[in-house]
Design a protein that fits this description.
This protein is an alpha/beta fold. The chain has helices at 3-8, 24-34, 52-63, 69-85, 97-102, 107-125, 141-151, 177-185, 200-210, 225-234, 242-247, 259-264, 283-292, 298-311, 316-322, and strands at residues 11-17, 42-43, 46-47, 88-95, 128-136, 159-165, 189-194, 214-217, 237-240, 268-271. The structure holds adenine and zinc ion. Substrate binds at residue 275.
Amino acid sequence: MTPDRLARLPKAELHCHLEGTASPALVQRQAARHGVDVSDILADGAYRRGDFQTFLRAYDRASALFRTEEDYAELTRTYLAAIAAEGAFHAELFVSPDHARAAGLAPRTYIGAVAAGAARAEADHGIVCRLIVVGVRHFGVAAVEAAARFAAEPGLPRVSGFGLAGDETVGRPADFARAFAIAGEAGLGLTAHAGEFAGPDAVRETLDALKPSRLGHGVRAVEDRELLRRIAAEGVVLEVCPGSNLALGVYPSPAAHPLRRLVEAGCRVTVNSDDPPFFATSLAAEYAFARDRQGLAESVLAGFTRTAIEAAFVDKDTRRMLE
Ligand code: ADE
Ligand code: ZN
């Protein structure tokens, strides 16, 4: 496929953290506005590179600079406009009531603002957007259950899913079973970060205990052939984020990334940007990675988009409209 054809390929994104879309320039502006020194997280107009813990701290520090409804509406609108320009027609954004509360915004107000930004982008660019409320694992079981109860409240605009994010090495998957039961009973789609840093056992336990239809990352499942067979057989969809994995050192080089092996094992795969400016990536760059660094064909890339729509947390009518 020529670069031109890749630009025109229809794309969809299932795994992107809203606060993780803030560009370094925007974070710098917000920091100046609020009199905050961000030299520990930014250098030379880019996010400083580091390990996962360093990233999570930088993410928290950047998130705390978004404090008003206007901030969140604009962050949402800007990101959706950017990926629409790359060919995306559907996106699901992770939203974190805990981060909003820490920044001084009530969760309902936060969701309302994000939904308003999404509505603007939908009107301007035709991109459909849904929101997935996340609980942050290293904030503790009680916080994740509170996030699930919040997500299950009726009348939250555009909220169609619940997810588990944060530091996968904290706690056991079963600790979060009650949160997932609350969200599942409310009819929300379920996804959990697993197999990003922790190995196949954590992926298996996550599938058993939380029963998500999708896994955030899931890439380390590649280390266990039996688990790969299970993921393929059960049709669990993997939200693969190669740029994130490479930036955070999960794999030492593009060639070492298991994207292609997951596809060849028959897993249902999508590609996603996770926290794009933190990892110097974009949704289009992830599709380009699949083609240029993993040698995957145009038909496989088109299949990523098809799989994302099949696995999207949308109602029947919306899915039909997206197909
Ligand atoms: N929160 C934001 N980005 C994340 C990631 N890559 N893994 C876990 N939690 C996150
Ligand atoms: Zn993520």
